Protein 1
Amino acid sequence: MVECGIDQWRPGEMPLPWIELCAAQGWVFVALLDERLVGSLTLVWDDPLIWGDRNEPAGYVHMLMVDRAYAHLGLGRSLLDWAERRITRAGHRHARLDCVRTNLDLRAYYENAGYALVGYREFAGKTPSVALYEKALDGTTSDRATYAGSED
């Protein structure tokens, strides 16, 4: 992403132990086309680091990735649709995700997929500010109340 000029997570900002935990727990899902890895996402059931402690259950989508050679197929949107169905089957009414606040292309992508901006999360140090997005999966609109979390 850095080499392509994409303003998202940089090396070292995603803790390797967390990524290893997600893989070990079976929370990382991959998309294969003719046995070739073409995309993936991670789906977890809570996210206190980014979203803080939230009372209402939701599914949290992380690390949505698509091989650029296959992006024209709508694979990213298909992966989001799949995650939303899985979240609904688990009995949760909201899908949540986040991205770096300044990544305007990704933010527009999520908004075009039906996600509503609900706020921002600021972090101390070099970690970038993130935009928090939510999508109601029951046909209602997402809560647009501003969420202003911060970490000291």
Note: The chain has four helices and seven strands.
Protein 2
Amino acid sequence: MADAIDVAVAVVTLRRGGVIAYPTESVWGLGCDPHNETAVARLFALKQRPAGLGVVLIGAELKHVAVYIEPLPAAAMKRVLSTWPGPHTWIFPRNSTVPSPISGEHAGIAVRVTAHPQAAALCRAFGGAIVSTSANRHGAAAARSAVEVRSIFGDELDFVLDGALGGLALPTTIRDAATGETLRP
């Protein structure tokens, strides 16, 4: 389990435009500051991921992701909030503050308020949302350990925040926030 010093190093790395790896609910994630265009472009290059696909943003609290989304009717927000914090990613209509590489070619933005202790500690220390995309080359299986992350990326990453996964066997569920429709079970 990462300690406060490791989280602080990860945050400094993010603020300096670095790309890090960290454990999430189900797989290891790659992250960076969503407002640092150079870091986001580097993350996409590391994954060999087409830029138009976009990425998920995670936060530790609603306020971390709320700055990126358009408001929804009360019933839809109640449905979303009943799953957070937790392993549920929701697609919201995005607002104008969303950097275009984050949403890619999509009209929406994928966001999650995580309950994973380390990922949440990272977001709290960073003071906002960070990019969260699986630690893998595009189309390959996602890493499920720090050893696998290092095997895939070697010294291409700026920091690896050691820790344990949250125990989910599959990546988080993705649902449409407006309709509740499940897009990825």
Note: Residues 51 and 151 are 24 Å apart (CA to CA).
Protein 3
Amino acid sequence: MNNINLLERITFDKNILAGKPLIRGLRISVAMILELLLKGATKEEILEDYPELEAEDIQAALFYAYFLVSKEEVIDRLAAS
């Protein structure tokens, strides 16, 4: 699966979770998946707890976060403080 296909799994709906990025229109946000991973959950545990998810959905959440950060404008952080 290429990166464009991964991003197609990320959807937005103003009526679900106030328009936050979602996985395939489910009530599962990208932020929630990232938080679970941050707290130490494995991909397998997440897929077990949320059977409507697919392994590619977790990969899509990670790629979406990477995509946002990679587009971030770099500023002189020392001058900004």
Note: The mean pLDDT is 92.
Protein 4
Amino acid sequence: MSEQEGGLGFAAEDDAPIPYMERIRDYYQGLGYGPPYRWAHYAAVPFRPLPRRLAECRIALVTTATPYQPDKGEQGPGAPYNAAAKFYRVYSGDSSADPDLRISHVAYDRAHTTAVDAGTWFPLGQLRQMAAAGRIGEAARRFHGIPTNRSQRATLDRDCPELLARCREDRVDAAILVAN
């Protein structure tokens, strides 16, 4: 008897997560880079409890999407990977507006998605809807972009402190990272 037949709703045996970390490591090894990349992870999660109920919290959205740069080549939905569109410094934008952000500078499965619905990779509209519905206190006045430049040192020493300073300036209680 299959799991479906047993009424448990389990996925098929071959329906498993994509081992993306292994795929990325193999990809860079194939390009001739040195030792395999060592993924950063903490033994203990460096988070703290919310200071109040979620319905009373100010929430910021943090993204790895980049503002559209017309001089950097094709960047629209379904565009091929475009390293020229990368950004290297934390940036902020107005959360009350709908910015023109793009994700052509990051690796994602272009064979199985078109990335046409920006709400799937930059859910600012959904965050504002949650605030309007009272699910969160409010969306922070700004959203923030953090680069994906593959440097743990730059991320930890420069980008994270800058992002934290901006979130503190906005008196944010929590941030949602939507990594593209």
Note: DSSP finds three helices and seven strands in the chain.
